[in-house]
Amino acid sequence: MDLSERHYRWTWQLKSSPDALWPLVSDTDRTNRDCGFPPFEVRPPRKGEPAAEPGVRRLRSVYLGMVGEWEEREFEWIRPARFIVDRRFSKGPISRMIQSCELTARDGAGTTVVYEMRVTPVNLLGAIVVPLAVGVRMRRAVERVFRHYDRLAGAQTKQGDAAVLSAATKPADSRLARIAQKLVGNAGQPEALVRRLTHLVESGDDPSLAKMRPYAIADSWGTERGETLDLFLHATREGMLDFSWDVLCPHCRGSTGGKSDLSGVTSEARCDSCGVDFEVNFDQSVELNFVLDPGIRKVTRTQYCLGGPQITPHVVAQKSLAPRESLYVAMAYPEGRYRVRVRGVAVMQAFRIERGGAARVRIDVGPDPRPMDEPIVAPDGILNIENTDASVHMAFVERVAWSDQSVTAAAVTSRQIFRDLFSREILRPGERISVGTITIVFTDLKNSTQLYRDIGDAPAFGRVLGHFDVIKDSVAAEGGAIIKTMGDAVMAAFVHPDAAFRAMRRAQQSLSSPETARSPFALKCSIHQGPCLAINQNDRLDYFGTTVNIGSRLCSLSTGSDIILSEQVAADPEVGKILNNSSTTISAIKDASTLKGIAGAPFPFWRIAG
Fold this sequence. Notes:
By secondary structure, the chain is an alpha+beta fold. Helix content is 29%, strand content 34%. The chain has 4 domains: 6-161, START domain (Alpha-D-Glucose-1,6-Bisphosphate, Chain A, domain 4), CATH 3.30.530; 173-309, no CATH class; 318-399, no CATH class; 422-609, Nucleotide cyclase, GGDEF domain (Alpha-Beta Plaits), CATH 3.30.70. A hairpin with a 2-residue loop joins strand 3 and strand 4 (66-72). Helix 11 (448-455) packs across helix 12. The radius of gyration is 28 Å and the shape is elongated. Residues 157-168 have low confidence and may be disordered.
């Protein structure tokens, strides 16, 4: 009986480029589903069985009536050229399966795809089944799906919009229609955008609806991100969608589990895949995603592959390096900052891809890597990763910048529509979570006490309430949020300082205009940027820390006819464009002052008038 390895190699010529095909073919969870392969379940360890090696997963599935159990090694890949995975079976008709895919750009246009399967039968049944299941059935399925992806890539269809090959379950049409009408009529959402969301709910497949990312969907639709996010928030309020707060590992950036509300998010978390504990922060670790409400349609999140390159798209290459083995990676990636990381080694080596960099850069990995400055490699250069150790190491080459398609907790909790619709979304009492860098605004009315004396308490109180509406409208128009009011003062938060500056200029102009007020208001204002902490304060999500304290003190330096900017805000490139290219006359005067309750030298700031 011949139980030797069977080798299958299939070659296809596709019209799309490797870059266009990669997000589709490397999404092995969707590919396996579209090919008709079975879902899997994670196999719990048996009594007395040793723990799996780091990165190895024990899985189980049933295919063609046969039960298979295996240990799956980590995928290895170089984006967008190739990927490979090795599976070792403990139950079933085969003992090992190695699957690989290679994409090579053809001269002119298009891609040559080489798909290989190396399968070793373990018994007579395996020797009979493998030629039929792999040599015939799998070849036909993979070719059909890859040619379908080629058409999608050729039509420039984004992954989030990719039509699946299986039919979707029909949603509850009547309830969906009622919610759509309320979104347009009551919530004031754009009718065309509501139709697009309704169509997605009606025709989307379960994986697409089990994790909806508003910014990614907006990019695929060609719509404005903030407007699309607002629609998703209103749709959640009306019962079409639900929240999912996903806590992301800073290394693999995979989700450690979704939470239905913020109270389930804690300041510390653990990634079992990487085997590390990490501190949670709002600007990177917590992402808001959406899932279809089960009252509209029940969505089943079935997994067909646990690994795959597209699960961690920030990782451009990863490979298990044997002792003294080298990995060469062509740096045909966007310019920016990257790093080489090794599992189990705390030290990471950063490098940059920039024009004018070296043609070849070598980085050694191991338990005691050779320290070096941050090297620069040219976009057409080569990165050489060398394992100088006597042990095997899994090396990762990854982009440092996080995806800008993530709706982070820092961004959404600093958005007024979220604060208005979900004011009860708060942290667990006593929990403190880093927000990362955020822009804090403080405002206060100048001489408001005199106003009460001049026109009386009731009229003055009405005027003060009206000024809150002006500020709120200005803040919301720039994507910010009112955090709280304190007497006549307001604290607001923004993700970007240029948005805060535009909002405060608009608010000052509105309140000081005789056309909008019987007697003009002078609005004192300050803008500061830096890290702070999110807390639960009076059943509201609040921010505190040194950044907040400094922002509050800076506001007292304003005269009401200027805006006080900290040096951090004034140095922002987008704020600089406003100051330098404004059509109105703006004067910027640098100053410094000792801030009450803030120890140290006088704090530098900029006074912006005009």
